[in-house]
Amino acid sequence: MNQEVKSTCCYCGVGCGVLIRTDGITVQGVRGDPEHPANYGRLCTKGASLHLTAQGEGRQRHPALRPARDRQPEQVSWAQALDTAVDRFAGIIREHGPDSVAFYISGQLMTEDYYVFNKLAKGLIGTNNVDTNSRLCMSSAVAGYKQTLGADAPPCCYEDIGQAGVILIAGANPALAHPIVFRYIEDARAANPALKIIVVDPRRSETAEIADLHLPILPGSDIALFNGMLHVMLAEGLVDGDYIARHTNGFDELAGNLAEYTPQRVAGLCGIPASSIVRAARWFATQGPALSLYCQGLNQSAHGTHNNAALIHLHLATGQIGKPGAGPFSLTGQPNAMGGREVGGLANLLSAHRDLANPEHRAEVAALWGIPDVPAKPGKAAVDLFKALESGEIKAVWIACTNPAQSLPNQASVRAGLARAEFVVLQETFADTDTAAYADLLLPATGWGEKHGTVTNSERRITRVQPAVAPLGEARHDWQIVVDFARRLGRKLQNPAVDRLFPYETVESIFAEHCVTTRGRDLDISGLSYSVLEQQGPQQWPFPEGASQGQQRLYADGRFPTADGRARFIAVAHQATVEVPGKEHPLSLLSGRLRDQWHGMSRTGIVPRLFNLDDEPLLAMHPCDMRHRQLDDGDLVRLFNGRGEIVVRVASRPGLARGRVWMPMHWGSRFMNSAGVNALVGDAVDPYSQQPELKHAAVEVAKSELNYPLAVIRRCSDVAEALRVLDAARSLLPDFAYASVGLYGRASPLVVFRAATAEPATARALAAIDRCFGLDGETGAIVYTDAKRHIAKKAIAIDGQLFGVRLAGETVAQAWLKQAMAEGGLDASLLRFALAPSAAAPVSVSTRQIVCKCADVSDDQIVSAIAGGADLAGLQESLKCGTFCGGCIPDIKRLLTRQAQQHPEAA
Ligand SMILES: Nc1nc2c(c(=O)[nH]1)N[C@H]1C(S)=C(S)[C@@H](COP(=O)(O)OP(=O)(O)OC[C@H]3O[C@@H](n4cnc5c(=O)[nH]c(N)nc54)[C@H](O)[C@@H]3O)O[C@H]1N2
Ligand SMILES: Nc1nc2c(c(=O)[nH]1)N[C@H]1C(S)=C(S)[C@@H](COP(=O)(O)OP(=O)(O)OC[C@H]3O[C@@H](n4cnc5c(=O)[nH]c(N)nc54)[C@H](O)[C@@H]3O)O[C@H]1N2
Ligand code: SF4
Ligand SMILES: [Mo]
Q1: What sections of the sequence does the record tag as coiled-coil (predicted)?
Q2: 46 CB near ligand 3 (under 6 Å)
Q3: Is there an atom of ligand 3 within 6 Å of 38 CB?
């Protein structure tokens, strides 16, 4: 019998509620939870395809121990696995002290998982070496809030988006990275024609398309812009002197600095017209409630904390905070980065927004945990933690729910650190991430659909996550793994507090303890419990004991959680990026997200249709920069700086200013033959937040001399087969100077492999490739070879349909071949076209346009349903198009109008 279980989407920090449909054994489907206040039933493409990632493919199913670094991991029991880990950790701790081990965890864990990891390190072992991937993500936002407002608390809520008069989106691309937030922005735009939207982004991003004013500032120049805006406000009398006087400190000192940020000077620093700065300032101060949305464009900078502070200043100076539609709203990246911050799971924090540097806070936590003290010495933040692995200072690392061998900057150093470490544990849901190659011990964790606990989203809302199915194989919940390890380690180290520290039998008991630690703090949730969350639904914090509901907005009374209750202005000044493009490396490299992929693609990378927009890592570049280097669209280029070199395909993007290139962060060594963009990005960090400058590196691009292209497209009967072929193809990647592999999916799933060589591929190499893709047979095959031009092609048909094609030396037909094969096949009678050097499809190939990317519905499906009498509601009912993110509804309406015009008689 099917039932629906309430859970959340495990991707971005919007924190959408989902209903998981299950027969109790497997996950059957997913839909948005109509009752969840984050999304009211909507989902984006990633959320809408979650069930496709929960079928067991690609998972780590049992603990495994690697007998030696050059050997494959071998299956072991949980007891063997944990005892081995205990022996190694205890041995290293005894010999070298607690600071010789470290934990590197993740904003994608549940709050309860996070809580016990933190307690294990700080409470049991006695080291603050516990840091997380939130260091790469939110730590500048944390430091920015704390420096100015006094606590790490986003003061806004999603409802503010619909109530704002002006929305400033800076260094964020919610159209792709927070799609449901973007739906709210679109709704606000539709409901209020007077709404002004300003987008600050060096690129003309997808989000910039909705802007009334796009400010394509020079990378890293946000402080100058915000200071310049404040200068204008001050000069034009647009600041709220009364609010400043009553609720803030430090304005005069900042104002002294502001004098030099004239629009003319700022125009030079930011590379935008002075008039745009003036306009942005006036709109911000005069259009009604002002709301800012910001993310990694501000955070991932060596001056990220001050980027955040400079933006928050605009709100403090105009009193645009603590009221509906207004405030600085930091968008959280990961689904539970907020929860991690709440339990203090970072090397410089303690439980419930307490600070490690504060002796009173340390004493409070020690008392709550029932131990004499917690260590005072700050732990190592992410970048330093991996440097310490490289230097040998840290000898063992426990990594959970993150993939540092892809996502950290300066990959050469990170990978050297992992290789040097004496003992690496990887607690993962999926097998074979880039980090797995370095792990001595692999521990299988439960994944989405199996997990339980709580998560907090961007608007401080805590949701209970319920399991829909049992753990796969031998997988265990993250908290269970930690608690089991902690108890074994505590006994081994003869720590008398171990039973008191880790008494938990249920996940609920951990949450209950966490709630207690928050009593009296800014994020007080002493009034929350699992039963309150189940009965009353997701709740925002604070929610102290006795409260009947959470708090929608913070600071309505103008009182801030600082010693004197006032917010603070910080004297921030413009700073350049750490690497400034120059003669040798004249291009500024930006990196970020695509709509349909999530980080290192361990999950989204097993869903064929999530590759349909981008199935290869592309470097976006301005046409003039390309011409200057004699590059054509689609050429393979070397992308390099002093740190490394990778080969990628270049794509012309006029929306990108000259001198800037952009690459997605998603491709690592599992989908291409290099570490991806982080082979080039440096590891300079912000002095306050220790967040690395992931968004900026100086690079150069040159045409590669890989003149012999290769492409293989292989149709598969189902996803399971596609994943097997994909895995096999991975073994080919290291053989090439350029290679990438991906999926593609419509009616049939495909595996798409592309590579290039400097010398023509030998017959032997081609035979190996054919074998790998199952294209080595003769039945149904046709071949074409032109030895003089080094062209060698082969196509195979099975059951009257094209099954696979390998093109070497010339590959121009691959684009239409891919479409045709994905739509179900290419009739065998057309096989010879597959080998022709034709970039255009033969007439008979259907070229369907996908209109609804969430439900994967094409224009011809919609047109034929309209011909059958369907209206919008009918289409939504029968095809499900336009029912997930809603982004395609305008396109569906256009098709309805077109059809009505072409066939008025039907209307
Ligand atoms: N589809 C998808 N969504 C995701 C994720 C994902 O992997 N895939 N990951 C989630 C996570 S963890 C995070 S942190 C968020 C990130 O969400 P965002 O930060 O919104 O996304 P990014 O693409 O990293 O970068 C945002 C924009 O910053 C711009 N930028 C670069 N440098 C600067 C600068 O100096 N100044 C300014 N003003 N802008 C700059 C980039 O051009 C880019 O358009 O996304 C979350 N959502
Ligand atoms: N150049 C560049 N680099 C970047 C960024 C950028 O914009 N540019 N963005 C940075 C940012 S903001 C972030 S957040 C990081 C993200 O970087 P990572 O944290 O490395 O990214 P993920 O691929 O999400 O890694 C999460 C891993 O946890 C596993 N997992 C999923 N669920 C569970 C679970 O419940 N338990 C356990 N134990 N494992 C699980 C997944 O399979 C996955 O492999 O990348 C950073 N790196
Ligand atoms: S916006 Fe998309 S990725 Fe983010 S939580 Fe909602 S469904 Fe998941
Ligand atoms: Mo992130």
Answers
A1: none
A2: yes
A3: no
pLDDT digits (tens, 9 = 90+) for 262-297: 999 999 999 999 999 999 999 999 999 999 999 999
Contact between 423 and 440 (Cβ < 8 Å)? yes
Instruction: Please identify, by atom number, the ligand 2 atom nearest to the C-alpha of residue 446.
Output: 35
* CA dist., res. 805 & res. 770, Å (int): 9
Q: What is the chain's Cα-based Rg? A: 28
Least confident of 72-81, 480-489, 710-719, 880-889: 880-889
Residue 173 CB–ligand 1 contact under 6 Å = yes
* 453 in contact with ligand 3, CB cutoff 6 A: no
The reply to whether CATH 2.40.40.20 applies to domain 587-703 is yes
CA of 176 to the centre of ligand 3 (A): 10
Mutate to test the pocket of ligand 1, among 201, 205, 622 (most ligand atoms within 8 A of CB): 201
Contact 429, 62 (CB under 8 A): no
E strand or H helix at 713, and its extent?
Answer: strand 708-715
User: Which tokens is 48 given?
Assistant: 């809408």
Q: Which atom of ligand 1 is nearest to the CA of 299?
A: 19
Question: Ligand 2 atom closest to Cα of 427?
Answer: 38
Q: Please give the CATH architecture assigned to the domain spanning 850-906.
A: Orthogonal Bundle (1.10)
For ligand 1, atom 40, the nearest C-alpha belongs to: 297
Give 430-482 pLDDT, tens digit per residue: 999 999 999 999 999 999 999 999 999 999 999 999 999 999 999 999 999 99
Region 186-192 average pLDDT: 95
Q: Which ligand is nearest to the CA of 430?
A: 2
Q: Is the CB of 201 under 6 A from ligand 1?
A: yes
Beta carbons within 8 Å of 903's beta carbon, 6+ residues apart:
867
Mean local confidence (pLDDT), 319-329: 98
| CA 480–ligand 1 middle distance (angstroms) | 33
* Cβ pair 612, 857 in contact under 8 A: no
Label residue 886 left, alpha or beta by phi (over 0 means left) and psi (-120 to 50 means alpha): left
Residue 132 Cβ inside 6 Å of ligand 2? The answer reads no
Q: What is the pLDDT of residue 847?
A: 61
Does the C-beta of 677 come closer than 6 Å to ligand 1? no
Domain definitions of the chain by residue range:
3-53, 139-330, 587-703, 708-835, 850-906
Q: 592 CB under 6 A from ligand 2?
A: yes
* Residue 332 CA to ligand 1 centre (angstroms): 10
Contact 162, 187 (CB under 8 A): yes
16 pLDDT more than 70: yes
Read off φ and ψ for residue 631, nearest 5 degrees: -110, 140
Token couple for 340? 């991690």
Nearest to 40 by CA among 64, 17, 6, 65: 17
Tell me, what's the pLDDT at 290?
98
- Domain 3-53 belongs to what topology? N-terminal domain of TfIIb (2.20.25)
Closest CA to 413 of 402, 401, 404: 404
What is the average pLDDT across 322-341? 96
Phi, psi angle pair for 780, to nearest 5°: 75, 15
Is any atom of ligand 3 closer than 6 Å to the C-beta of 10? Answer: no
User: Is the shortest distance between the CB of 454 and ligand 2 below 6 Å?
Assistant: no
CA nearest ligand 3 atom 6, residue: 16
CATH 1.10.10.10 assigned to 139-330: no
User: Percentage helix, strand, coil, to 5, in the chain?
Assistant: 35, 20, 45
Size of the chain in residues: 907
Q: Any residues with CB less than 8 A from the CB of 843 and at least 6 apart, and which? A: none
